[in-house]
Every structure is written in structure tokens, then in C-alpha cells.
Design brief:
Blueprint (H helix, E strand, L loop, with lengths): L5 H21 L8 E2 L1 H4 L8 E2 L5 H15 L1
Antiparallel strand pairs: 1-2
Length: 72
């Protein structure tokens, strides 16, 4: 696998956050703080981190239900 430039890593991180947001929304789960961590976007290595953020109890319970359903 070829090494990614910082710009490519940043673009890939934004793309995966958008895809994750869309898939979670499709399943009825919204993580309001879902984003790329801006501090890790500035770092060279290893890669930007995805911040899943804080959510309320209802959202956490919905996420558990979705994950349990996916595991079956």
C-alpha cells in the first residue's frame, strides 16, 4: 500500500466520517459530535482520528441495538 500524503489522509478521514454519519443515520442513529479530530488532522503520523463524541443515553442504547442486530 502506498503512503498517503497529509492531504490524502485528511480527505480520506472526512470521507469516512461522512460515510459513517450516513450509515448511522440510515439505521436511525445520530452522533451529534461525530467529526474528524482537528488536532490529529495537523499531525503527520499515524493518521487523523475520528471523534465519535458524546451522546445521550437514548442514542447509546440505539447504537447498542444496531450493533447487536448487525452481529446476528
Amino acid at each position: 500500500m502506498m503512503a498517503m500524503t497529509p492531504e490524502e489522509r485528511g480527505r480520506a478521514a472526512e470521507d469516512v466520517v461522512a460515510a459513517l454519519r450516513a450509515e448511522l443515520a440510515r439505521l436511525g442513529v445520530t452522533l451529534p459530535s461525530l467529526r474528524v479530530d482537528p488536532l490529529t488532522m495537523a499531525a503527520e503520523a499515524p493518521y487523523p482520528l475520528v471523534e465519535l463524541g458524546r451522546c445521550n443515553l437514548d442514542t447509546a442504547m440505539r447504537l447498542v441495538a444496531v450493533l447487536r442486530g448487525a452481529a446476528k
